[in-house]
């Protein structure tokens, strides 16, 4: 597992890979992908191009929020996986649920919810893209701590405080949001929850169901 390390001077360094035992406490980002050209990759970080890309906005948010929560490490799927390595990519996909589960905090960055008002932002959750994507299902269910933020970084609530609304939007029972793990959920139930969700690639839908 590779992580971004945010030092006290504002520097950002890609560190790792870490074994499960060696991994420090970390925050993790849940988001929806833009175009491939907009997203920051591991290569962009290494070549110093990260801040020039539109996708850096959510990375900057994640680093800032993690620092506020006294977490020096974060994991972000766009830039912490070497996608040129099929072995590393496969390992990441197979480990994804566990990585979200073992995170200290999961920050949901809602790109299409633009507001500094928590009340307005909560109302926008019903139509936000994040609620319709395939990969975000496990990213919502796996972590113990999930916090929802607008594009401006306004905290809208947590998985616990918004459980009733999330259940209404997704048809997922509130008890599944708070206590169950994916192993306790039947494949039939997962498929029902995925019914109105989409993924960028057709094969990704199968991966989200099996992870």
UniProtKB/TrEMBL annotation:
PANTHER family: HET DOMAIN-CONTAINING PROTEIN, HET-DOMAIN-CONTAINING PROTEIN. It comes from the Eukaryota. InterPro entries: HET. Residues 26-121 form the Heterokaryon incompatibility domain. The lineage of its organism: Eukaryota, Fungi, Dikarya, Ascomycota, Pezizomycotina. It holds the Pfam family HET. This is Heterokaryon incompatibility.
């Amino acid at each position: 597992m590779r992580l971004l390390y945010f030092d006290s001077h504002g520097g950002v360094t890609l560190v790792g890979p870490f074994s499960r035992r060696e991994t420090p406490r970390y925050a993790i980002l849940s988001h929806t992908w833009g175009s491939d050209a907009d997203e920051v990759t591991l290569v962009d970080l290494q070549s110093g191009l990260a801040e020039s890309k539109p996708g850096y906005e959510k990375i900057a948010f994640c680093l800032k929020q993690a620092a506020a929560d006294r977490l020096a490490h974060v994991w972000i799927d766009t830039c912490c996986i070497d996608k040129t390595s099929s072995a590393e990519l496969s390992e990441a996909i197979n480990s994804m649920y566990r990585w979200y589960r073992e995170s200290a905090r999961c920050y949901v960055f809602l790109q299409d919810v633009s507001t500094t008002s928590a009340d307005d932002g909560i109302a926008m959750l019903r139509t936000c893209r994040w609620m319709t994507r395939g990969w975000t299902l496990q990213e919502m269910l796996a972590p113990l701590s999930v916090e929802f933020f607008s594009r401006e970084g306004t905290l809208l609530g947590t998985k616990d405080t918004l459980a009733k609304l999330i259940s209404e939007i997704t048809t997922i029972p509130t008890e599944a949001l708070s206590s169950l793990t994916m192993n306790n959920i039947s494949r039939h139930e997962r498929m029902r929850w995925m019914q109105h969700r989409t993924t960028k690639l057709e094969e990704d839908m199968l991966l989200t169901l099996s992870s």
